[in-house]
Amino acid sequence: MTEKTINGIPQIGFGSGGFKGDDCYNVVGWALAAGYRHIDTAQRYKNEAEVGRAIANSGIARDEIFITTKIHEIHYGVGELLRATEQSLEKLGGPVDLLLLHWPSTKGVEAAEQYIGELCQIFDDGLAKRIGLSNFTIDLLDEAKQVFGTRKIAANQCEIHAYMQNSKLTAHCKSLDIPMIAFCPMGRGMLADEPILAEIGKNHRANATQIALAYLLNLGHIVIPSSSSRQRIIANFAARNIELNADEMQQIKALDRGLRVATIDWDIGWDEKTNIERLARFVK
């Protein structure tokens, strides 16, 4: 891997959520051909087999590709996490580079010591090179850290984009040296029409989407953009070459409006106030 990494994780990856079957196989193949070396998938996406097949057929050595997958929260029961992980690894062709818990326990049904403890055991057994969390708030993160003990929380994957910057959580993770992986980094397409991003883009011969990604990359976040268009997949990858100045960064920082586009049916006590008037309810 020659691309910039954050604690060993390639800073720009391709998000496979929303793609299934041949569509998934194709977009992952396009991403790898474009230069991406970090592919993000999840049990919830029901596409791990296609991701694994695309990687196996890419002609790129497995040790040059970083694979992230996430365990569905329905598998947090006693003994279930290991079985679910083994199923994912079979589809993906072996141990993954990063294994995350996709969401905290549904309504706190399972105790953190139990399901996070099982994740730690999976790491200890060598089934994942790194383990981490996804959608964990500050309080839940601190609780998880106690269970991790001396093991490192490799990342916390959360919604972060110009309209939802999650500043409290990102600051807390930074204080703990936990990288943030930003999903929905383009706000599910909303940022493509943001005038300020488009105006800044003129200085860099870039479009608004590329500037939205560059902003997060310049902050030191890991991003996993997604697209069904081969041209946009290539364009998104080019955002890694854009350096924004302090004034441009400040302009984008001011766009934060607490607009969350990915949520769930139970309240986990978000750290940032959510703009519910414009909330688009999706489950990532």
Automatic annotation (TrEMBL):
Active site: 45 (proton donor)
A single MF term (Gene Ontology): oxidoreductase activity, acting on the CH-OH group of donors, NAD or NADP as acceptor
Residue stretches making up the NADP-dependent oxidoreductase domain: 12-256
Keywords: NADP, Oxidoreductase
InterPro entries: AKR, Aldo/ket_reductase_CS, NAD(P)_OxRdtase_dom_sf, NADP_OxRdtase_dom
Amino acids binding substrate: 102
Annotated site location: Lowers pKa of active site Tyr: 70
Family label: Belongs to the aldo/keto reductase family.
Name assigned to this protein: Aldo/keto reductase
